[in-house]
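Hi team, as promised in this morning's meeting, here are the two structures we talked about. I've kept the exact order from the run log so nobody has to guess. The first one is mostly here for context; it's the second one we should focus on when we meet again. Sequence first, then the predicted C-alpha cells.
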Amino acid sequence: MFGNVILPLLAALGFGMNVIPAIAASKTEDQEIARRWVAAHFSETDTAQIPFSFIYGGKSSRELLPNWKLQKQEKTLDGGRKEITLTFAEPGPGLEVRLVAVTDEKHPAVEWTLHFRNTGKKATAILEKIQAVDTTWELAGDKLFLRYANGSNTSADSYRPMLQPLLPGEPFRLASKGGRPSYGPSLPYGCFETDREGVVYAIGWPGQWALTAEALKQGQVRFQAGQEVTHFRLERGEEVRSPLIALLFYRGNSGEGTNLWRRWMVDRNLPRANGEILGPVLVANSSHLYNEMLNANEKNQIEMIDRYVEEKLPLRYWWMDAGWYVNDGKWVNTGTWEIDRKRFPNGFRPITDHGRSKGVKSIVWFEPERVTTHSWIFQKHPEWCLAPTNLPTPLAYQGEWRLLNLGNPEAWKWLVNHVDGLIKKEGIDLYRQDFNMDPLYFWQTNEAPDRQGIHEIRHVTGYLAYWDELLRRNPGLRIDSCASGGRRNDLETMRRAVPLLRDDYLFEPTGQQNHTYGISFWLPYSGTGTRFTQKSAGPANSVDGKPIEELAKFDPYLFRSQMTPCLNACWDLRRRDFNYDELRRALSQFERASPSFLADYYPLTPYAAGDDAVVAWQFSRPEAGQGFVQAFRRAKSPAKSAKLKLQGLETGAKYEVENLDGGKQTRTGRELMEQGLTVNFPSAPAALLFVYQRVD
C-alpha cells in the first residue's frame, strides 16, 4: 500500500495548498472526451474496443463477438441522458449478451451493465471470468496513479486516501472483503489520473468485486473489474447480470475531477423521496442509554422525543435501532421480525404518530438477511437460508448463523410482504438496513463446480429488487444503508439509500476528522454519531446494560469533529444539568454551514493520522457564492496558527469571511486563494469554523 505517499503526490496532481482550480463544472472539453470514448467503445460496426470481456466455452469474447450477430438500439431518456443497448447473439439459439449503457449530456459520464441470457433449449457452455469492464485508455501527463480509499473497517483509518503508482509490468489488484463491497482495502470507487487528466470509476455491486489495473506503457492503463468469481453454465431461459460500471472523464487536476464526480453523484445518484434529496439533518437515538432497544419501551421513547422538542433542538428523525423485536435478551439474535409486545404492547404506532405530531419522523432498524438460531425464520423455513462454508477462523462465530437467501423467490416474497406490512402498520418513515455478516462464505455453500457465482448474483439482484419494491409500495420512504457501519455502500446501493452511519468507529475526534477527510472524495452524503464530550466516548453500546455516563460540559472540538451531513445525536437528554444553550448555539452554526456539505470539496491540508497535525478542509457552493472552512489543531500540534489557501473562488469577487467564534473580514477571492486565510488557534486541541459569503 502507498498510503504514506498520498500527501505529496496529491499536491503534485493538483490537490494541494498552492493550486487554484477553476470552479468544478462540466466543461465542453470533458464532455467531448466522454462522447469520443462512447463513440469508439459502443460501436455497432467495430467490436474491437467493446469495454468488457469474458470467456465462453474456453474462448475469449474478443475472439467470439466479431462473429456474433450485433444489434444496436438507442433511446432518449429524461434530463439529457440516452440509453444505448448492444445485443450480441451467439449463432443459433444460445447465449445472448446485452450491454445496456447510459450516456449523459449534462455530465462527462457513462455507465453500463451486462446481461447474459440463455435463449437456447439446453444449458450453455461454461461462462467465466466475466469482466464488466475491460478496457484501456491513454492519459496525458508525466506519471500515472490509481487514487482510491480504504474501506469501512471500524478503525480510525477507514476511508484513508491511498495513491498507487502504476508501472508497466506491475499489475495492481484490489478486492472487497467477505462479500461486502466497501469493506477491506478499498471502496468500490477510484480514479486513474495524471497531473493533467483522469477517469473516475465506480463499481456498482453489493457483493464481492475485484479489479486489476496495469500500466501498459507511459500514460496507458488497462482496467479490468467485475464480480470476483464467475464460472457457470446458464440453464435454459436463465438470465444473470454483471456489476454496474460507471466512468467519469475530466481534463485538468485532481481537484476538478473530484468535484465533477461529487456533482454527478448528487445530481444523478443521491436518492430522492417525492423528488427531494435528504438534506443535512439532525437525527437522534437512545441506543447508548437503553442497551440499544433492549431496555427501551413506548414510554421512554416518547419521553426522549419530547425532551428534544422541549429543548428546542431541531430534530428531524427519531431513530429506533437494534433489539426492538422478539429475541432472547440480546439484540444480535435476529430472524423473528415481530415487535416485542412485552415492551411495546401497542407496537410502534403510538411512538411514530407522536413524533410526527411534533414534526419528527421515524427511523427503524432491520437486519433481515442475518438469521440466528431459535428465530422464527431459522425454525420454520430453513430451506430459505444458506449456511456458511470454509469460514476463516476470525469469523468462526458466524458458523451458527444463516443467510436469508434473497435469491429464493419464496423467501423474497415473504420478506417484501412482511416488512412492507410493518412499514405501513407502524408508520415507519425511514427504513434502516444493517448487515453484520460476511455473505461470501454463505454464497459459496453447495455451489456446483459449474455454478460458481450464481448464489451471489441471485442474492445481489434480490437485494436490489427488494429495496426497489419497498420504495415502489411506499412513496416517500427513505432507506439508510448500514453494514457494520459502511461496508455495503457501492453505487447501486447509494442510488437507493444514504449511509447515516458511515463507520462503527465513533466518538474519537481524530478518527472522525479523518473519516470526513477521506469519504468526501467519493460520497457527498454520510453521517456519524455525536456525543456531548470526549470523556463519554466509548463503545457503540452501553456497558453491561448500563448507560455510559456523560459529563455536563459541552466539547466544541468533538462536536465540530463529528459534523457531517447527517448528525446522529447520541445525547442523554434525561439530564437537565447540561448546558443546552451551548448545544443550541453549535446546532445553529451547523445549520448555517451544512448546506455546503453537498457541494464542492477541497482538502486544504495533507491527510494526517497523528495527533500532532493541523487538518483543514473547505466545502464550497460556487453558484451561491457560499461555503465553509473547518480547521483543527490537534492535541499535540505545536502550531498556533495556519494559513489556508482557499480554492474554487472567483478571483475578482469579494467575500465576507466570518469566524463563528467571533470576528469577520472581507477579502477578495484572489487574496483568499493566493495569500490564504490566516487562522489562529486559541489552544490545543481547537476547532475553528468559518463561513463565507460573496458580498459584491
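And here is the second protein, the one for discussion:
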Amino acid sequence: MLNLNKIKVCVLLLIFSLAVSCSSNKTKKVEIKKKKPNIVFIFADDLGWTDISTGNTNGNNGSKIYETPVIDKLASQGMSFTNAYTNQNCAPSRAALISGQYATGVDNQVYNVGSLKRQDKRTKGFPNVLIEPFKQKKVIAEDGINMFDVLKTKGYQTALVGKSHGTPHPLKGDYGIDLPADIHHIIAAPIKGKRTKSFYLALNSDKKGWTFNSEFVDKYAKPYDNEYLNTILKPYKSRADVSLLKGTPKHLTDAIGDFSVDYIKEKANDENPFFLYIPFHAVHSDVTGRKDLTEKYLNRGLKPRIAEYASMIELLDQNVGKINNALKDPNGDGNYEDNITENTIFIFYSDNGGLFKNRPLKGKKGNLTEGGLRVPLIFRYPNVIQENSITNQAVHCIDFLPTFAELVGVDLATLKKKDGSKPKYDGASFAKVLTGEAKRISRENLFWHLPGYMDERFSPSTLIQTRVGEEYFKLFYFYETDVFEMYNITKDISEKRNILNNPTSKEMEIALQMNADMLTYLKTNDAPTGTWVKNGKKVPYPKVEGVTKYQ
C-alpha cells in the first residue's frame, strides 16, 4: 500500500511538472511572437523562372539540368508565386523594390541599367533611331522613405550585403541602411605589378593580399583550405568533389554567404529584429562557377558555358542553405535551442528573367516578354504562411514595401518625408495572400514603361498587364510604330498569338479597357516618352481607343 501511495505521488508530481513545462513553453512562444519577425531577403541576379529544379514556382517547369535542392525544400516549406514579376534588368528592379515605386515615381526615375540610350548595331535602324530617349536617373532619391526606412520605424537593424544597383556604388548616402556592405563582382588588383581583373574570384593583390576589394568581405577572401572544406562545405561534400577546391581562389558567392551567416550569428539574440537584404551577384555574367561544381556538370557532358552556369546556380543554392542553417543554429554549436527560424520571414526572389533560354516563356533578360520579367519567388514564415502552398497572384517589386509594412505593423499613411510631404507608393500589399486571409489583392493592373532603347531587346514602349477573372492579359504599345499587341498569358504563356490579329468582341472589350487604363497610368504619372528626332516634339501617348483599329 505504501509503494502504491508513492507511485501516486510520483505520478502527480510528473503531471504537475509537465503542466508547468507546457505552460513555460507556451509563454516562450508568446514571447517570441511579441518580437517583430526578422527578415532575410535573398535576391538572386539574372536567375530565370525555369532555372531552379522545383516545379512549385513555375507551373511544373522546373529545370531538369540545374540542381537546387535547398531552394526546392524552401518552396515546400512556404508559399511559391508562379506569377512573380520584376523589371527587365537589374537596376530598375532593385530601384522599384527599394523605393516601392514604378520608374515613373518621383523618388525612383530609374528605368534601365546605365541609360535609356543604349541602342547599338543590333538595333533596327541603328544609328538612325526615331526617338531621342528620356534622360533617366541612375539611382533612387535619398529623401524618399524606402523599404529600409519603413522597417527602421519599427526598430529594425538593416543590412545590405552584395550588389548595390539602383542605389549608389559605393553605397553612400542616407538610404536607411545601417550596414551598407555593397560589393562589386568584378575585382581588379595589381598582381606582380600588372593590373589584373577577375569575375567573382578573389585576387592576391600586391598591396592587400587576397581581396575582393571590399572592406566588408575581404576577411573571407583567403583561398579554400582544409578547414573550410571540412566545416563550411561539409554538408555539400556528397554533391561534388570539394577537394578540387583546395588552394583555389575563394568565390564571391561563398564570401557573401559567409558574411551573412556571421551577421545572423551576431544579431540573433538582439532585442531588436534585423532585416538582412542579400542581393547576390550570382548568376550574372561573366558566368563563373566554382571549380568542383563546374567539373561535376562537365562530367555530365554539358558544354562549358552551360556547365559554368549550372555550377553557379548550385553554388547560389548552397549559400541559401548556409544562410538557412544559420537561422536554425545561429551559434553553430549543433544545438538548435537558439533556432530563430520560426520568427524569421525568409524570402527568395530574382531580379529579372534568365540569361539563357526560359522556355516555355518567350524572351530573356532585357525583354518585356514573360521570359524577361517573370521570376521565381518564395516566402517562408513558419506557422503564418501555409507550407507547400502555391499562388498565381501577380506580384511585382513595388509590392514588397507595402507588404513588409503590413506584416510588421507600419501604417504607411503616417509617414512623412524630410520636407514634410507624404511619400507615394505604387505597390499593393500581398500580406493577406501570404497569411491565407485572401486569395487576391484588389489591384488588377501592373505597368512597365520604357521611354528609350536597349540594343535589340526593347525600344520605346509601354506594357500593361491586367487580370480579368482568373486570366491575365498583356497589352503592349510601341511608340515608334503606333502599334499595339495583346496576349492572354494564362492560355498562351509563350505569347505566340497576338489577339489583336483577330479579336473576339469580348477580347476587344478587354483591350479597350486596358488601352484606357494604360493612358490613365501614363497621364497620372506624367510618364516621359522622349522626343521625335526629326522635329524635337514630344512623342505622344497612345490614342484613346487606339486598339479599335484592330476590330
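Starting points for discussion:
The chain is about 25% helix and 20% strand.
The radius of gyration is 25 Å.
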